[in-house]
Amino acid sequence: MLPLATAQRWMLAAVALAVPLSAWGAIYPTNTWLQVGPVALMLPLAYRLLRHWTVSNASAACMTGFVLLHLFAARWSYSFVPYEAWLGEGISAVFGSDRNNFDRLVHFLFGVLAMPPMVELGARHGGLSARMALAFALMFVLAVGGLYEIFEWSLTLSLAPEDAGAYNGEQGDMFDAQKDMALAGLGAVLTVPLVRRAGWWRGIAE
């Protein structure tokens, strides 16, 4: 295994610090630990994986950025992030509805931020061509999006109705899961030209 880059050590440290901050004062503590707990458990594994499958600092920053965004949203169980209180009620017009859409934003950004590291991993460690690395990254985003929705549904079967509704975050939308997956896919597709232009599969985007 190779030594972990200093910048990536700091990224892992930032995530480790964000874990207790996310749980501190959470409005749904049970749900928050369901969302925060896996991140805490994955930290030691992430350290080993980053040493075994090296990636550029830029790709590591994409992964770190998404995890920090997830921890930030988990503090309010996603559906209750008070962005209207911070930015004004007019912000709802940007999203086109009165629904709290922070969870939709996170799904979209998952597609955006997962593409660069997955393309780099596919090319550098999977031996894929640039085109195949892009296809691999797209399929990764779509597959993870679908598997997460299935996991989310199966987990809430064991929760109380109030906790299940808060954790799922569907907010009365029967097509919430489909829209979340679609937004992740859209984010991934829109990122393809940027990833191609940066030549991310060569690992040069530092």
Entry summary:
With 206 residues, the protein is mainly alpha-helical. It has helices at 6-23, 29-52, 57-74, 83-87, 91-95, 102-124, 130-156, 161-168, 176-198. The radius of gyration is 18 Å and the shape is globular.
Can you tag this structure with a few keywords?
globular; 9 helices; 73% helix; 206 residues; mainly alpha
Describe this structure in words.
The protein is an all-alpha fold and 206 residues long. It has helices at 6-23, 29-52, 57-74, 83-87, 91-95, 102-124, 130-156, 161-168, 176-198. The longest helix is centred in the last third of the chain and has 27 residues, at 130-156. The mean pLDDT is 84.
Walk me through the topology.
Layout: H1 6-23, H2 29-52, H3 57-74, H4 83-87, H5 91-95, H6 102-124, H7 130-156, H8 161-168, H9 176-198
Helix pairs in contact: 1-2, 1-3, 2-3, 3-6, 6-7, 6-9, 7-8, 7-9
Global structural class: mainly alpha
Order of helices and strands: HHHHHHHHH
Spatial extent as radius of gyration: 18 Å
Distance between the first and last residues' Cα: 20 Å
Helix percentage: over 70%
Oligomer: single chain
Count of separate DSSP helical elements: 9
What are the low-pLDDT stretches, counting only 5+ consecutive residues below 50?
none
Number of strands: 0
**Mean pLDDT over the full residue set:** 84
- Percent in strands: under 5%
Tell the overall outline: globular
Largest sheet: none
